[in-house]
Amino acid sequence: xxxxxSLLFLTCAAILASGCVSNNKVSVxxxxxxxxxxxxxxxxxxxxxTYEKKLGKLIKEKVCYSxxxxxxxxxxxxEFKREKKSKRI
Length: 89
Description:
By secondary structure, the chain is an alpha+beta fold. It has one domain (24-88). The chain is built from 2 helices and 3 strands, in the order αβββα. A 3-stranded antiparallel β-sheet has the order 1-2-3. β2 (47-53) and β3 (60-66) form a beta hairpin. It is elongated and about 55 Å long.
């Protein structure tokens, strides 16, 4: 009886552990006409796509941003963190 319980426990643990494995895929695509930003450097026009899990959803969605847009989002997030941190004190 205890062997079957331990086997069942190990099977459940393996299933739960495999569900926690992250599957983040990053792909770089050529920018389309609507994604192009009017700048001199083509490196800032490169579009980077990732699969991100949205809040409240179980399925990851493909999200594409240019490198410039990603930098702007990162800067805004850092500024928001600084503002929240300064209000806590």
